[in-house]
Amino acid sequence: MPPLTDLVACPQCDTLHLAGDLPVHARAHCQRCGLVIATSRPTAIAQVLSLALTAFVLMIAAVSFPFLALDVQGRNNSISVIEAVMAFDDGIALLLAFAIAGFIVVLPLVRLGAIIYAIGPLVRGAPIRRGAKAAFALAEALRPWSMAEIFIVGVSVALIKVSGIATVTFGPAFWAFAGLVVITVLKDQLICRFSIWQALEQQPH
Ligand SMILES: [Zn+2]
Q1: Which structural domain range is residue 88 located in?
Q2: pLDDT value at position 27?
Q3: Confidence at residue 53, expressed as pLDDT on a 0 to 100 scale
Q4: What is the DSSP letter of 45?
Q5: Are both 98 and 151 inside the same structural domain?
Q6: Domain total for the chain?
Q7: How much distance in Å is there from the Cα of 17 to the middle of ligand 1?
Q8: Same domain, yes or no, for 33 and 56?
């Protein structure tokens, strides 16, 4: 039985594999389901870091700039995500507002912040920060709960309905959110959890 630290489980089907050093630019697939378990691209961690930083900036823009403007019979109204969340101010709607703000803004920001905190020093080859492993584990645990991309799909569906009765103009924040969705997908594709964990384990504290 090899030591536990040499084993890696497929994130999809839990099949155990023996971890070895990959040649540069190679990929390791799961033997049972074919999922890519590890890739070895020296620049991958730097790419993930730059995408996470980009997403962080886009997220700030997405919540602070006007999200959309409605024009109904000459009356124009524009609103940002923060203003929309603050508009719910009583009873059960307030709870809903907190939930929306949490899932589409706070959790994604915490997740991005945790990734940047954990892998930032790795890119420079510096010793890892205190709690970097916990931060990366937190980012992984939050992955199913950060829902910025689901929000943009929901909003788009609602807007198609509204566009029948009012003229809808998308503000800068809408495009920031749209960019954010693309960046998030790219980042989650590029991220090789196995090599990041390995790098975190190997670096001195
Ligand atoms: Zn598998």
Answers
A1: 42-202
A2: 81
A3: 93
A4: H
A5: yes
A6: 2
A7: 10
A8: no
Stretches in the chain below the pLDDT threshold 50: none
- Do residues 21 and 38 lie in contact, with contact meaning Cβ atoms separated by under 8 Å? no
Specify the pLDDT at position 204: 64
141 CA to centre of ligand 1 in angstroms? 19
DSSP string of 109-146, one letter each residue: HHHHHHHHHHHHHHHHTPPPPTTHHHHHHHHHHHGGG-
Q: What is the pLDDT of residue 158?
A: 81
| Start-end of H helices in the chain | 44-64, 81-86, 91-101, 107-124, 132-142, 148-162, 172-190, 193-202
> Are 84 and 147 found together in one domain?
yes
Question: How many Å lie between the centroid of ligand 1 and the Cα of residue 30?
Answer: 5
From ligand 1's centre to the CA of 38, what distance in Å? 12
At residue 5, the pLDDT reads 75
Task: Say if residue 94 is in the same domain as residue 8.
Answer: no
Q: What is the pLDDT of residues 73-113, one digit of tens each?
A: 878 888 888 887 777 777 788 888 888 888 888 888 999 99
Q: Are residues 55 and 66 in the same domain?
A: yes
Model pTM? 0.76
